[in-house]
Amino acid sequence: MFLRHSWYVAALSSELNERPIARTILGEHVAMYRNFEGRIVALSDTCAHRGYPLSLGTVVGDKLVCGYHGFTYDAEGTCVAVPGQDRVPSRLAVRTYPLVELGVWVWIWMGHDEPEMAKLPETPWLLESEEWAVVSGVAKIDANFGLLVDNLLDLSHETFLHNGSIGTPEVATTPLEVEVDDEIDMVNVYRHMNDVICPPFYSNTTGLEGRIDRWQDIEYFPPGYYKLNSRIAPVNQPPAPDGSDHHAFHVKIFYGLTPSTDTSVYDFWALSRDFCVDDRDIDGFLEKMQSSVVQEDVDALNILQRRINGGQEIAEVSIKIDRGGLSARKMLERLTEEELARQS
Ligand code: FES
Ligand SMILES: [Fe+2]
Questions:
Q1: Per-domain residue ranges for the chain?
Q2: Cβ contacts of residue 278 below 8 Å, gap of 6+?
């Protein structure tokens, strides 16, 4: 079962233009586009006439024209014109979905009820600003949503799967701490590594060389929003008591986990940094590096899912590093029970 009463990342802002795109989100076919007025629209990707994908249609002004026989829909999903007759069958419409564009990401509300704006994450770091530079991307993984949750909640895998980019031996050897906040539905997993090797991901961007203090603080808000606060600093220069932290470089790594089907998930990512914000070379380096890190995760999860698809029973053994993932699973179970209770 998918959690529908929630916001999910549906697209990168840069993906939406007058050429509609198709996404399958929580098993539903969705078409999205930006009309000529700049408004972003998401609607069912199934024409009310014969079911042709509306994402194969054409945006004309503020409307979308089906690419098969020309049924025409406005931004509310109402069919406003059909070919060969003046009268449009009454109440002919397709479902639309609320969208909100916040910086580089576009969020979609998948519930059948009114969208809960209070549940929309606040993400000022995803807006280009004088303080933050942002790069972003998306990958599709042919694996179950839960496998991606497990992956992101345990970063000790960096040492092995991402060796050479962000993984160093200390990530796996440093114990992690887990805190669960059932009030705001958040799982916090953190690992503070002091006096450790600086991986290329950060040495090539911050200019720090040799040993560093490296902190990873994960905030996971199930089901679909994940933020990793990464602090990279010269050794033994902690933040000041007032919270100021001028010695350090900060990178926030965001993931939007959006289930597509039972065996596929979109892995939206964005990376914000508070240093060299005008440096396009660093943008390019980080974009390339992060894309290849994500691809390593994609490859690993695809392999796991293929094993599951092959019918192989996987008996799990959990250890200390799995505490974050297990806490996330538990919270997802509770949220699922709450959603079922709301429906009944
Ligand atoms: S299927 Fe869309 S107009 Fe016929
Ligand atoms: Fe990874």
A1: 7-118, 124-343
A2: 133
